[in-house]
UniProtKB/TrEMBL annotation:
One of its GO terms (molecular function) is 4-hydroxybenzoate 3-monooxygenase activity. It holds the Pfam family FAD_binding_3. This is 4-hydroxybenzoate 3-monooxygenase. Residues 2-344 form the FAD-binding domain. GO terms for biological process: benzoate catabolic process. The keyword tRNA-binding does not apply. Keywords: FAD, Flavoprotein. It comes from Aliidongia dinghuensis.
């Protein structure tokens, strides 16, 4: 079997790359370890920057997102019994973000690839990548009980943080940067109407909490918890009690709506970057190359930004024979990645409870929140990073 670009992973990065390549007349095969149902139901990110929305629209896969996505022009920060709105529209000249679940983006991309006759292989087992330091890379895998080999011009490693592509690069040819946080997020999806339109990021003495949503009927909520948290210790009652306490039912009557909990999960928090994001004819993109803690809502947006650059590089190569896009791919992406690493780390540090912090550190954290919510310059900095104004 042969193709031009072999793609490992059918998350947002791999599917979007396959779709953009198809629009440039470049063939690809996507190999995914999980089932279609699993990837379509995997609940993760929810906040799309305008650049992500624009790319999905330009690529012709934005119709349902335009209908069902919720446009947000601000967020609320709650801390020390106070409540402060960061007005993105006012601070950034009208910009905002769109709340639309990552799994909906994945569903839209899968439907489009299949409608265009795309080759997506779900439940591909034992995927391994070979000979990408030469001109004829190969991907070996098992599919429906048969061993297969896919020969390709290039391999795109879009297989997430726990994938096989990054570890296949000789360890002395890449450098990784890593930071593990001493907490995780317990996330729930609840069948409850959102109690307000905008997201709430809360810093509370018990730990961070985040109020978000997916639709007019579904609320998405997160609680800071221990990294080794045992979900069985979190009954629905305990979760709601912690959410009410940390988000703080307000004197003006605001109160978090409750409803049946549809899904619970624990997400560890990590910052991670691989440099460079290319080795020979293997390119890493998205979570395969970098991870951010979710506080800044940047992970999927960074994956999409990588793919925009990578798809352009492939287009220039196949149309014009130019390898310049390949040479600059890593550097171009890393500039944005490090900016967003800084922002995600900063949001995480400002909003979470750190058990090992001194009283001094805790006062400095509150002073930071006070500054961000009272200085226009500081609010503007948060707003422009959150909506993702950075161009290349
Ligand atoms: P993934 O989505 O991880 O896709 C990789 C794919 O590769 C998967 O389908 C996996 O099954 C497959 N795979 C893995 N190994 C193999 C293998 N060996 N062979 C074949 N296939 C393989 N980001 C935002 O932008 N905004 C947010 O609001 C946000 N919130 C988040 C909240 C949570 C709780 C979490 C967990 C993440 C959040 N993120 C957010 C981050 C975002 O979900 C990720 O950054 C995004 O999924 C990255 O996409 P990807 O395609 O690179 O990787
Ligand atoms: C959501 C996730 C995030 O990480 C974030 O910062 C905001 C919202 C969400 O899942 O809705």
């Amino acid at each position: 079997m042969r193709t031009q670009v072999g793609i490992v992973g059918a998350g947002p990065a791999g599917l979007l790359l396959s779709h953009l390549l198809h629009r440039c007349g470049i063939a690809s095969v996507v190999l995914e370890a999980r089932s279609r149902k699993y990837v379509e139901e995997r609940i993760r990110a929810g906040v799309l920057e305008q650049g992500t929305v624009d790319l999905l629209n330009e690529a012709g896969v934005g119709a349902r997102m335009r209908r069902e996505g919720l446009m947000h022009h601000g967020i609320e920060l709650r801390f020390g019994g106070r409540n402060h709105r960061i007005d993105f529209a006012e601070l950034t000249g009208g910009h905002g973000v769109t709340v639309y679940g990552q799994h909906e983006v994945v569903k839209d991309l899968i439907a489009q690839r299949l409608a265009d006759g795309g080759d997506l292989r779900f439940e591909a087992e034992d995927v391994s990548v070979h000979e990408f330091d030469g001109a004829r890379p190969k991907i070996r895998f098992q599919h429906q009980g048969t061993a297969q080999e896919l020969e390709c011009d290039f391999i795109a490693g879009c297989d997430g943080f726990h994938g096989v592509c990054r570890p296949s690069i000789p360890a002395d040819r890449i450098k990784t940067f890593d930071r593990i946080y001493p907490f995780a997020w317990l996330g729930i999806l609840a069948k409850a109407a959102p109690s307000q339109d905008e997201l709430i990021y809360a810093n509370h003495p018990d730990g961070f909490a985040l109020y978000s949503m997916r639709s007019p009927e579904i609320t998405r909520l997160y609680l800071q918890c221990r990294p080794d948290e045992d979900l069985s210790q979190w009954s629905d009652e305990r979760i709601w009690a912690a959410l009410h306490k940390r988000l703080g039912d307000r004197a003006d009557g605001w109160r978090l709506n409750e409803g049946p909990i549809l899904q619970k999960s624990v997400t560890p928090m990590r910052s991670f970057v691989t440099e460079p994001m290319r080795y020979g004819r293997l390119f890493l993109a998205g979570d395969a190359a970098h991870i951010v803690p979710p506080t800044g809502a940047k992970g999927m947006n960074l994956a999409v930004a990588d793919i925009r650059v990578l798809a352009e590089a492939f287009d220039a190569f196949y149309r014009l024979g130019s390898e310049e896009g390949f040479e600059t791919y890593s550097e171009t992406c890393l500039k944005r990645i490090w900016r967003m690493q800084r922002f995600s780390w900063w949001m995480t540090s400002m909003l979470h409870r750190f058990d090992d912090r001194s009283d001094f550190d805790q006062r400095v954290q509150l002073a930071e929140l006070d500054y961000v919510t009272s200085s226009r310059a500081a609010s503007e900095s948060l707003a422009e990073n959150y909506v993702g104004l950075m161009r290349r």
